[in-house]
């Protein structure tokens, strides 16, 4: 397969939930976050339903090799209100491309499509985070015009209090 010529981008299909769950699971495993495959499959079903609701509650787009291929990349963006941007913004919660398909511009294209969507729909900005040490992600975002913020991010988990 050559670069991105054979890659098709678009909304996920309902039957993609297990493949998207696998991508979520791969990413969480790579990051050392202990989630079960079942949890990620359930989340994928919820995300697909939320992205297809009217009005949509989030954006979920996939990249796949060919029109009938199984998703090899996924992007999940949530809608929120931002003081920093003084209006509606998108938060890219997840960008993941399976290792076999990396370095072909798939992640860049998924992010570019979200930036186009945000501009076309009146959003004021897009936020995201990358884990420290994820140099390829950091380079990608900087070359696309994202700016690094000088702050820390914290989380509080409701329910069980395990660490990420």
Uncertain runs: none
The total strand number stands at 5
Provide the gyration radius in Å.
Answer: 16 Å
Mean pLDDT: 92
Helix content: 25-40%
Q: By helix and strand content, what is the structural category?
A: alpha+beta
Strand fraction: 15-25%
Question: What is the spatial order of strands in the main beta sheet?
Answer: 1-2-3-4-5
Largest β-sheet summary? 5 strands, mixed
Order of helices and strands: EHHEEEHEH
The DSSP helix count reads 4
Question: How would you portray this structure in words?
Answer:
The protein has 164 residues and is an alpha+beta fold. 33% of the residues lie in helices and 23% in strands. It has four helices and five strands, in the order E-H-H-E-E-E-H-E-H. The chain has helices spanning 17-30, 37-52, 106-120, 135-143; strands at 7-10, 58-65, 73-82, 87-97, 125-128. A five-stranded mixed sheet has the order 1-2-3-4-5, sandwiched between helices. A hairpin with a 7-residue loop joins strand 2 (58-65) and strand 3 (73-82). Helix 1 crosses helix 2. The protein starts with 6 loop residues before the first strand and ends in a 21-residue tail after the last helix.
């Amino acid at each position: 397969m050559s670069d991105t010529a054979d890659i098709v981008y678009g909304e996920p299909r309902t039957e993609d939930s297990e493949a998207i769950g696998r991508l979520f699971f791969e990413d969480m495993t790579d990051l050392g976050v202990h989630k079960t495959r079942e949890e990620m499959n359930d989340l994928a079903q919820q995300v697909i339903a939320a992205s297809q609701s009217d009005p949509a509650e989030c954006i979920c787009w996939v990249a796949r090799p060919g029109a009938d291929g199984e998703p090899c990349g996924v992007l999940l963006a949530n809608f929120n209100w931002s003081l920093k941007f003084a209006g509606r913004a998108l938060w890219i919660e997840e960008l993941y491309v399976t290792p076999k398909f990396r370095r072909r511009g798939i992640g860049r294209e998924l992010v570019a499509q979200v930036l186009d969507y945000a501009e076309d729909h009146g959003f004021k900005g897009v936020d995201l985070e990358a884990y420290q040490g994820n140099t390829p992600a950091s380079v990608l975002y900087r070359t696309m015009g994202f700016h690094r913020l000088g702050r820390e991010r914290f989380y509080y988990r409701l329910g069980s209090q395990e660490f990420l």
